[in-house]
Automatic annotation (TrEMBL):
Residues 8-295 form the PBP domain. This is ABC-type phosphate transporter PstBACS, subunit S2. The gene is pstS2. InterPro entries: PBP_domain (IPR024370), Phosphate_ABC_transporter (IPR050811). Keywords: Signal. PANTHER family: PERIPLASMIC PHOSPHATE BINDING COMPONENT OF PHOSPHATE ABC TRANSPORTER, PHOSPHATE-BINDING PROTEIN PSTS. Pfam families: PBP_like_2. The keyword Ubl conjugation does not apply.
Amino acid sequence: MGSTPAVQQRDYIMIVGSSTAFPIVSAVVERFVRKTGARSPVVEAMGTGGGFRFFCDGAGLETPDIAMASRKLNEEELKQCESNGIDDPVQVKIGYDGIVFVSTNDAETFDFSSRDLYLALAREIPDPSGRAELVSNPYSNWNEISESLPAMPIKILGPPLSSGTRDILVEKLMEQACADHAMLRDMRGKDSEAYNEHCYTFREDGAYINAGENDARIVRKLSHDPGAIGILGYNFLERNGDLLNAASIDSIAPEFEMIENSSYPLSRPLYLYIKREHYPLVNGLSEFLSEFTSDAAWGDEGYLVDKGLIPLSAEESSRWRERALPGI
């Protein structure tokens, strides 16, 4: 006798995670519901870290089916998943995005170096006078960091600790800048906990403002504060190009081609994570993923490109589609 197929136990899909991926996922949700007539998936933006915590809370149907993310699951999160009975979640790369530093169209246009941004963001920096010690960040205006920057107060609206965007900033800006300083390199070898505390912590003196997980809220705040800089995903820049200017980083602008080929310093992949256990139990889950990974959605001329998603290559698309749709 053949085995009895699993009975579907929930008639809608639950998705949580990255605010950057939220508009991309929402576009697929809209198309999926229109095409199938299925009950609309519930999608909640709570940041990549917050989404992973909820996703890894357990394998039961009271927990999310999909986590949307702007970085990979880290080792600690994988252990949480495993300890709560989630067996090897399916990782699917869906495309690429860039982290952009933006200002309003009527404000100054910036060309930052990676070092400029580190010196603007870090709570502590190597003493500018040359002494071999760390000091509280003394910079209050951009021109104090570099004479090439304007005499404007440093005010940056950015993501909270739970955000994958913040994790990527730490990895690609803070980590790299710290590696360039002999004192910090030496600290890393001797005391990794102290290194992480000194190197990965953003300033808390008002120059960096936690603006929450909602990129759209940052855009609104910038419209009322034209001297401020916002940190957003490229897809939000694409949708608000009439309102915003994007800064170059190391003289490379955050343009489609520069992100696609990873020339732009803050390029990053976006991911979905799916619970294997939920495929047979949640109505429409496989069909939703089939829509998401269709050429009409994530292909070179798919509707997600209009939402600011940088598409995968044809070879990558084929490989990740197979992973998203096991046995289909």
